[in-house]
Amino acid sequence: MDKTIIFTGGFFHILHRGHINLFREAKRLGDYLIVCIHRDECVKRKRGICAVPLEDRKAVLQSIRYIDEVWVCSENCDLTQVAELEKLRKRYPKHRIIYAKGGEYSPENLPTCEKDACERLGIKIVYGVGGGKVQSSSWLIEKLLSKSQKVGVEGGLG
Predict the structure, then answer these.
(1) Looking at the domain assignment, is residue 69 inside a domain?
(2) Is 63 within a domain?
(3) What is the reported pLDDT for 135?
(4) pLDDT (tens digit, 9 = 90+) per residue, 30-78?
(5) Do residues 46 and 19 lie in contact, with contact meaning Cβ atoms separated by under 8 Å?
(6) What CATH number corresponds to the domain at position 92?
(7) Contacts of 66 (CB under 8 A, 6+ apart)
(8) 45 part of a folded domain
(9) How far, in Å, CA of 75 to CA of 80, rounded?
(10) Does the residue 53 lie in any domain?
């Protein structure tokens, strides 16, 4: 048990500096960082829109130096990471595993099923990785949509 595997996941719908902070700080927690990304249908189910297709989001994540491996969530995804945490423990039965959660997560708002899975599987949860929430893909999309609506109403770019 000499290696520590770090795991995190999300939609990574529109990558931003908050995500980079998460990846950088998560990598500092251990030896090998695995990032799980949700499929397009998951993004649509959660956010209503998927602006960047899975293969593009995955390619961008694979190019980030802090990330060692990128997984795609299971086809029957329930929008949590429980299935992936179980897969992770099966793949690394003797390693220390840390589930790195970003700045917007705390013990109070992490899905109970993920907390229970981590406890059952012997996976440590670290909250607030990468600092507080500095940006959000949803915020960026809302800002973009509001600007495009203004452009449509005003009839110009300016």
Answers:
(1) yes
(2) yes
(3) 56
(4) 999 999 999 999 999 988 888 899 999 999 999 999 999 999 999 999 9
(5) no
(6) 3.40.50.620
(7) 20, 23, 24, 26, 27, 33
(8) yes
(9) 12
(10) yes
**Interior/surface letters 123-156, b for 16+ CB within 10 angstroms, e for the rest:** bebbbbbbeeeeebbeeebeeeeeeeeeeeeeee
Q: Count of domains in the chain?
A: 1
CB 86 within 8 A of CB 116: no
Report the DSSP pairing between strands 69-72 and 96-102. unpaired
* pLDDT grade for 110, boundaries at 50, 70 and 90: very high
Task: Read off the pLDDT band of 133 (50, 70, 90).
Answer: low
Residue 92: give the domain boundaries: 4-133
- Does the CA dihedral 112-27-122-78 come out positive or negative? positive
User: What angle is formed at CA 2 by the lines to CA 59 and CA 67, rounded to 5 degrees?
Assistant: 10
